[in-house]
Amino acid sequence: MDDRRLHGREPLFDTEPPGLASRLVGLRPHQLRSCPYEHEGDLPFVVFAGGRGLGKSALLAEVRAAYRGHTPVALIDGEEPQFAGPPPERPGEVWSPVAQALTTVAEQLAEPVTGARRIGFPRLASGLLAVAAGGWGDRDVPRIRQEAERILLLNDSRSFLDGFAGRWVSKVVAKLIASMSNTGPVVEPIIEATLESFSEGVSPTHRRLRRAATWYRDYPNAGGNPKLGLILLSGHFRAGGDSRTHAERHLVRALLADLDDAYAGVVQRSRRVGRPVILVDNVQEPAGRGLMECVLRDRADGIRDQVVFFAALRGYTLPHSRLHSSGGTPMALRNAARRTLTEVARTTGWEPGASPSSRALLVSLPPLKPDDTLHIVGAVCRGVDVPPQLPHATHRLTGGSPLGITLLAESARQNLPRGAASLGALLTGDVTVHDDHDGRPAYQELLDRLVPGGRLDELTVLATAHDRPSALALARDRLPDDFGAAGVLGLEERLAAEGWPSAPGQFVGDPFLRALLLLRLHHLDADHAQWQAAHRTLVDHYGEQGGADAARYRLHHELALGKADFAVAHLRDTFTGTDVGTWLSALVFIASAPYFHAHDPEGRDFDGGHGHDHRAAVALGRTDAEQRPPQGVDPVLHLRVRRLLHAVWQLTDPLVLPDVKVAERLRFELEQLSNLRPSGTALLWRASRDWPTDALAGRPLRIPGDDEDGDRGGAA
């Protein structure tokens, strides 16, 4: 793929053999070359699913770029302000997110493409005018003129530049306004004037308008009368609730019928290569959800269309869906076919069922691979001296998040020449992502996109928690009284709904998001008071409990406060009497404590805030001479465990580049420990071989025996 394409998304954009987009649209991306259709009749409504930062919006934008100008294409985002509520002057009973979405989609689909003229949407325009007229009782002529002109401009298949469309629209608008008397309802006169305007003239355009005007005679209870059909549609829309949903479904059907009309006939089909494409970002929002559900219901009822829908869903389920089975149970895409992006590379394997949600194909987007990260960093940082370990360390930190990789690569481009030497420095360094905005820390840019919508302060504190009880302890001690248990449960639900993974032993399961939140917590104040208070709360919480698990959690937070002696003593004293696998697991968990430059018990930075990392010095034995092991313990074992703890702490820190010398020392210390445990020699020896390699490659340290059948070359 060339540089304009998205890394790691080849199954969608491949041309030889054809990827998913080519097979559904019938066109190869960025080309006017046709491609055999995979689905000739029923089409799947493709929903790309995943959490924030996986590149769903970028994927849809690339699809639009790939087909724009070649086939009709439209892109809407359900989170755009235009779908949040009606304009100030428009009554709410004649506006809905779905109706607004249809208008926006039609305006984009109308644009001419190579070899074919504009598409007109007379059926949709007739319905939208009938709906809008329900709010024209105030006789606000300027507003009526503006709304009517926008809707009527959807009608004409000629270019707006030739003047005909503008003249025809002005004429019809004048007729509509003249049809309104000073008193009484206006819906019926507006519909009459609209149908009359569509029936005038003998040109092919007017014949098409007349044919479209009769379409509403099939509206339920219209009795073959298109005027009555439009009146009923308008009334159902204003009624709200299920009646409005019924009306919206017919408006969506009108849009699709107009598209079918544009492709009808031998001449039209010969001029139009490929199917029209509608892209819906944030389909979980009302505008996108309503549009999708109308399409799915019609397709399930046997009403076919030939539009390719690609949507992006935040998370992996559609909450609070209006789709219902015959029993009235919310379905929320539960019957959708589920695939990974790799699985649809050559065929979807999709077959529709009887339910509406079975007409959807849910495709989960995978994180990017280490090689993708290498290519992205290389492309963005072209001409910049990049440390060789930076791409793999970036992948380890981000877990393959396209957003994280791209923004860190941009920070590297801007901050490596300024002296940044670690991923932590790239995250705290200012990065300018828009030319018209000043730079600010990269971690703030990332959190703004990954955790919008409030409660960032609370989630920042709760990122230190491991489960609900520890989160509740933090809420009681560190968060406002009105947050409490309900706030904790609400954030739990929100993380799950937005597609963030769960993980045993972590309240915030995603390692990348957790790392960003902990970095923010550390930088909330100059003396790190809030950082220390949160960890001290958890030290106290786990100190009140007994058992090995509580001890590991308590030592993890002691280490986060810079107090390593407790962890060294625990690991030293349990080395000979604990199962080796359990001991190694405890070592890795305790050493996963977040680390920021050393500070004393009062919160003062040892080095004045320059971010000096003393862990390498400890791991390499440079501080051994200053240490006095406690009386009665084996000093050799004590110092070896101390060095080993700091080596693992440094090498597994996602915010730093792993130190090759520390990795070699890790190998040596594990080898030496294997001599002290005859029964556990094999596991310690295996760790001495695997851990340094894994750490330098950006992979997690695996406990020997945990994944004997796993892929030892897998990425983090």
Strand order in the largest sheet: 2-3-4-1-6-5
Straight-line distance between termini: 25 Å
Extended strand count:
8
Main structural class: mainly alpha
Main pleated-sheet profile: 6 strands, parallel
- How large is the share of residues in beta strands? 5-15%
Write the layout of secondary structure elements.
Elements: H1 10-13, H2 20-25, E1 45-50, H3 56-67, E2 73-77, H4 97-109, H5 122-133, H6 141-152, H7 164-179, H8 187-199, H9 204-213, H10 226-239, H11 241-262, H12 266-271, E3 277-281, H13 286-300, E4 308-314, E5 337-340, E6 360-364, H14 370-380, H15 390-398, H16 402-415, H17 423-428, E7 430-431, E8 440-441, H18 442-450, H19 456-462, H20 468-478, H21 484-497, H22 511-522, H23 529-543, H24 548-560, H25 565-574, H26 580-590, H27 615-619, H28 635-651, H29 660-674, H30 681-696
Parallel strand pairs: 1-4, 1-6, 2-3, 3-4, 5-6
Antiparallel strand pairs: 7-8
Helix pairs in contact: 4-11, 4-13, 5-6, 5-8, 5-10, 5-11, 6-7, 7-8, 8-10, 10-11, 11-13, 14-15, 14-16, 18-22, 20-21, 20-23, 23-24, 24-25, 25-28, 28-29, 29-30
Written account of the structure:
The chain is mainly alpha-helical and 716 residues long. The chain has 30 helices and 8 strands. It has helices at 10-13, 20-25, 56-67, 97-109, 122-133, 141-152, 164-179, 187-199, 204-213, 226-239, 241-262, 266-271, 286-300, 370-380, 390-398, 402-415, 423-428, 442-450, 456-462, 468-478, 484-497, 511-522, 529-543, 548-560, 565-574, 580-590, 615-619, 635-651, 660-674, 681-696, and strands at residues 45-50, 73-77, 277-281, 308-314, 337-340, 360-364, 430-431, 440-441. A 6-stranded parallel β-sheet has the order 2-3-4-1-6-5, with helices on both faces. Strands 7-8 form a two-stranded antiparallel sheet. Helix 6 crosses helix 7. It is elongated and about 105 Å long. The protein starts with 9 loop residues before the first helix and ends in a 20-residue tail after the last helix.
